[in-house]
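User: Can you predict the 3D structure for this chain?
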Amino acid sequence: MNSKHRFSLLWVVFIVGLAVLPFVTPGTYVIGVMCFVAFYATLACGMAVLLEQAGIFSLAAPTFFGLGAYVAGILAAREILPPWAGIIFAALVVAAIAYIIGAPLLRLRGYYLACATFGLLFIVEIALAQSGEITGGHDGLMGIPPLSVVGFTLRGDFHYYFVSWVLCLGCLWFFFNMMNSRVGRAIKALHDSEVAASSVAINVPRFKLKVFVLTAVMASFAGSLYCFYLQFTTPSMFGFPLLVELLTMIVIGGATTLYGPVLGSVVLIWLREAIHVYLKGILPKLTAEVDAVFFGVLIVAILIFMPEGLAGGLDRLAHFGRRLLGKSA
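Assistant: Here is the predicted structure, written as structure tokens:
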């Protein structure tokens, strides 16, 4: 069996495992945690495409995640649009915003772009918090109805589990096909050298803006579904702490592969749950600072022993295993 077929088989096993998990897991705790894994994996995957594949140092993923949640949530809570239509409208709004702000922002590069998008994160968070009459302010947006499509209403973790993972796997499939197409090859060329890409007739501003808008739309879909799952949302949910978590997921999982951020989100979310469950007696007050200590130690260990993340480590381990089996044969 060649490496391509073996990789496809692993994906089939992973998808079958996801489909079977809700039916073999008692209670809803595991399913609920896996819903959050899917939401954050979708967001981290899009952010990794920007950072690693395209070489665009943008930190705006939580911003578009939050805008998608708020636009869809406000439209549904005010009964302006049904929830499914609100998700589509929110994606269009986010795409328009990403296009408008992306055109000037993407003229910046490296740390300048990172600083600009980091500032955008705080601007949007403050604007959402101060627009109390529309967004609910610091108290958050309440009264968001559950997601309903063609008369069928999604209720409970079981329904949202399947929808969130369909979204996550759909985004992975989309990005995988995009990066293996002509557009993807042009995007990878931007990462290597924008000057070299321009010399072979690649429209650098156009392709940078295209991938920026596409990842923003994916973030909007994840944010909209996220708000319908929780049925409330607050500005602090889409601020700096979320950005730190996303960067941690990408570092832990590795951004050289598309499945790395998914692996990182699984490890990060379940590690956080384990810390809160098993260290509750030792550390009664498990604050975000305590989480940061554990995650910081993990990041340092990953960067020292596996600079390419867990995905890169698994690839090297698989390569070593194939060489070992080949010699033994």
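The radius of gyration is 20 Å. The first strand starts at residue 148 and ends at 149.
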